[in-house]
Amino acid sequence: MLAEHGADVLAIFADGLDGGNASFEKAPPTWEQFTTAKLEEHRFVALDGDRVVGWVAASPTSSREVYAGVVEDALYVRAGEQGRGVGTALMARLLESTDAVGIWTVCAGIFPENVVWLERRTDRP
Questions:
Q1: CB contact set of 37 (below 8 Å; sequence gap of 6+)
Q2: Where is the chain membrane-spanning (predicted)?
Q3: Is residue 125 domain-resident?
Q4: Is residue 62 part of a domain?
Q5: How far apart are CA 95 and CA 11, in angstroms?
Q6: Is the separation of the CB atoms in 34 and 10 below 8 Å?
Q7: Would you tell me how many other CB atoms lie within 10 Å of the CB of residue 50?
């Protein structure tokens, strides 16, 4: 994720918030707030050509050293792009990057309205 993706990332975030099923936040952050809160090495976008169709990022869950291996994810897919595997690809990339540096827990809050993602998982018991 580069600064040039910022406007698209925040627009997708805002669309998710407007839908009411993405976050408890009331408004998206500024780009500066976003980049400060998210871990730089764990921020990715999905592109369709030059168009950002989704993004994922991780943030620390705590500043306490004992939680250094725990992050919280945020994943948003542009309206109209769901169902194409964008979210799955983004999550795979995030897990690859967190595994590479020894992060052992990625916390995710999935709203019940996003049950389709859960139903598509093939690695669940």
A1: 29, 59
A2: none
A3: no
A4: yes
A5: 24
A6: yes
A7: 8
For residue 78, give the nearest of 118, 51, 104, 58 by alpha carbon.
51
Q: Has residue 33 been placed in a domain?
A: yes
Domain total in the chain: 1
Segments forming the whole domain that contains residue 28: 3-120
What CATH number should be reported for the domain holding residue 90? 3.40.630.30
Q: Which residues contact 7 (CB under 8 A, 6 or more apart)?
A: 31
- Residue bearing tokens 């169709």: 53
* pTM for the structure as a whole: 0.85
Any domain includes 29: yes
Q: What are the pLDDT tens digits along the chain (125 aa)?
A: 999 999 999 999 998 887 766 667 778 899 999 999 999 999 999 999 999 999 999 999 998 988 989 999 999 999 889 888 999 899 999 999 999 999 999 988 777 766 655 555 555 44
